[in-house]
Write a structure and sequence with these properties.
Elements: H1 3-8, H2 12-19, H3 21-58, H4 62-65, E1 67-72, H5 80-86, H6 89-101, E2 115-120, E3 124-125, E4 140-146, H7 149-152, E5 153-158, E6 173-179, H8 180-186, E7 193-197, E8 203-214, H9 220-223, E9 232-235, E10 244-252, E11 267-273, H10 284-297, H11 299-308, E12 313-315, H12 318-361, H13 363-371, H14 376-405, H15 411-435, H16 456-479, H17 489-492, H18 494-509, H19 511-522, H20 528-538, H21 544-579, E13 583-587, H22 596-603, E14 608-621, H23 626-631, E15 655-661, H24 663-672, E16 700-705, H25 707-713, E17 718-722, E18 725-734, E19 746-750, E20 761-766, H26 770-778, E21 784-788, H27 789-794, H28 800-830, H29 832-844, H30 849-882, H31 889-892, H32 910-937, H33 940-943
Parallel strand pairs: 4-10, 6-8, 15-19, 16-18
Antiparallel strand pairs: 1-11, 1-12, 2-4, 2-11, 3-4, 5-8, 6-10, 7-8, 9-10, 13-20, 13-21, 14-15, 14-20, 16-19, 17-18
Helix pairs in contact: 2-14, 3-12, 3-14, 3-15, 3-28, 10-11, 10-12, 12-15, 12-21, 12-28, 14-15, 16-18, 18-21, 18-30, 19-20, 20-30, 21-28, 21-30, 21-32, 28-32, 29-32, 30-32
Amino acid sequence: MSDGKRASEAPWIRTRLRTAPGAASALAVLVLVTAFLAAAFPRAVDAYETKGLRHDITTAPPSRSVVEISRPQPGLELPQEQREAATRSDELARVGGKLLKALPAPLRADTSSVAYGVRTTKAVVATEPWLPRPDAVPPRLSYAAQSGLEEHATLVAGAWPATPAEVTEKSGAVQGVVTEETASLLKVKVGATIALPASLRKTVTVTITGIVAPRDPLGSYWSADPLMRSPSLVPDPGSPFPVFFWTGTVLLAKDAGPVLLGTAAEPALYWRVPPDATALTGPDGSRLRAAVATLESGPGLLKVREIAGGTAVVGTGLGHLVEANARMRDAISPVIAVAALGIGSVAAVVLLMTGALIAGRRRAELALMRSRGGSLRGIGGRLLAETAVTVLPATALGLLLATLLVGEGRWWPGALAAAGVGLLVCVALPLRTTLQHIRPVLGTPREDMVSARPSRRRTVVELTLLVLAVAAVTALRRRGTSTEGGTDLLVSAAPVLVALIAALVLVRLHPLPLRLATRPMARLRGAIGFLSLARAGRSSAGGALPLLALLLALATAAFGGSVVAGIGDARDDAALASVGADARISGRSERTTLPEDLVRTVSGLDGVRNAAPVRVEYGIALPKPASDAAADGDGDGGTGTDSGTGAAAATDSRVAALVGVDPASYARAARAAGLPEFPAERLRPGGAAARTAGSGFDRVLPAIASPGVAARLGKEPRAIETLSGNFSVRVVGTTERAAAVSPTDFLIVDSRSLERGAPTTLLLTGTPDPGKLRAAVAGDGEKYAVQLRSEERARYVDTPMQAGAQRIYLTAVAAGAGYALLAVLLSLLQTAPERKTLLARLRTMGLTTAQGRRLLAFEATPQAVLAAGGGLFTGWAAIALLSPGIDLVPLALAGVAGSDTSPVTLRTDLWSLGLPAAGVVVLTAAVAGVQAWWASRRGSITELRAGDSR
């Protein structure tokens, strides 16, 4: 071929893109969205892990997060000048600078809050008569000469402490200050003096020259040792009686440290280093834990001792904070992996469907090229080039958008994920297209799904996938998602495998109901119903790939939606278990009872539908198990507390909570709280079950017990000793939960049968105004506390790690629904030309426009209904099978003090199941209607061209 002729040829890629710009643009958009999601996922995981680690460190009490390096006072064998020099601020600052440089990476210090100085480690009794003495015990004070006082405090009264002359070990007077809170509680005033006993002389006089206010009371400078900021009333450990005394801290001038060497208060040198979490990332957690470990007992400690002295020690709770963060991360990661693998599988199948659609549209073109001598390598190369021109820029743009829009995270995992998307499309499309033309195609074969017989190879593949799915589900049910070795990909892929098996089974079985439905349709007068069902059984839109995409997307959306809904339900249940009702009024002390006037006043407030007075007494000692009592011949049901070996030994119910209730109102409260139906009629006196006459243990009260308590007490009357009176109980029923108590072991009786049955708690059902409710309770003093279920629910605020995981699952639900709808569009577009031709041919035979629309709608609807039904069943089955292995506590309740940490299992959310499936049916009908409308606007001559193989 001459150079002139070669120059006149149009480039292949440019020609193809100009010929089909819509298809190229649609492919680019699909790749862009998929690459963005693929790149955003690892960055989102890194982002929430990073924010979670920083949040846990910055919100932890400084007493736990600060790294403190301390050493005892210099040895007495050293000269006095050398001992004093080691405690002066200049020397302490020099050592502190070296210690900061010696911190192992990634641990870095917040230099603005670093503090160092000399403090007494043994509190000294202050004998000044003006100091408060609760229980006639004098206060005990600590003394600290700490750096940076003027930078971290504001002078409220008096003057800053100073050292007019050089302070030595033998100095007899120094100056100091106290905080506002210390001055208020300990009655300290400016100018007051406190005698500090010394070993070489009688006392050191500490003059209080000022009162200061902390600028950041919760910062590490003031809260690493809370006594520096606030005094505390503590019990005397040496007294046999419960007596209390005050303890606090006096802050000396920063250069007054040497004076503490002459006291018997065991002074020590210290450097407090708060960690700087701003530069930490999620992957730094393991390195940070190793760095803390080496500082506490490893090579890092040896280096610290080279700088600060051979007796230096490192103490911190930072390692425990990082370990707790790692445990939560390890608990959340396997659950997140389920969503990631599900959406990744759906996206991969949709991309393969797109390639199949493009390959089907270009089958005739490539068959012509092959028949004219085109080689597979040449055809594949051209397809690869034209695909790469469209796909690679879209992939790069998706990666760029993920990098810009998603929070900080490592770059390379997102880049690898986006590159995987681009590589899949670039390789799958040319490979799928060229493999269809290994042999020249003489005609367009008919793809009849009903008559197609599955090959042996396909049967082997399906059986292999079935074995893998069963193994994954079994492993997940037995050991859960959290394993010691980390995330198990096979276990996390169990929902995907379940959906895959369901898709393969549905592909094989769904022609059967269509074939059965054609028989009654054939007897009807019209041909629309029979023709639509016959075509639905033969349509290529019902192939394995579209069904697989639909079932995977619907199952993933249902799984993700159920996780999100389960988190909210778990928090609602935890709030209800903590409060017991919509509102709760109880005494601040366990034995405080509620007056009748308060009960009547609160019960009459607007919004209160039911008020249930309850008497709760914790720590009731239970008798020995029924089996042990029978073996010992203990016919009177003594009140011993031995554990025994009977049926109750497994539950170890040695103590329980006694709950005295009004059966009618309590039953209404339990019903409103969603608890199991409470058998109130069984607690009513009368019959053989109750014998309330008499006194003491002769009285037998019917009781509803928890299963563990019921197993321990047995069926016979057992004696119980309580502060509400002594009596015997006979268990007449069991219930799993009680509205008034959170422990699992309880005993419910009728409060009217108790000797002292005044209520200690009032459970309210309804929506009372919080302000009016608290005002009504405040009228009786501060002895009573008000708890609201709504306020308890508000405590469950997402930590950054929990919020990030929930966002990923919400994205999984949305992406799953979107890919499901896209799979429907692709499957219908794949058969769109064939449907247009069918309508054109039938219109030449007298088919009307309305009949054509009904034909396409009836043809597409059976497959959509079967796919939606299969998706519903797949999502429900996946959740039902995998829920025993999924614990939502790390996502729902972790990090909230006092929350119920019992396992929270995954439950099916009907909205997450039904909405995507209904969307599939609606979209299918809508697309079929649009196709019929568009085809009716075009003439039959346009569709029926001479020589057209369709």
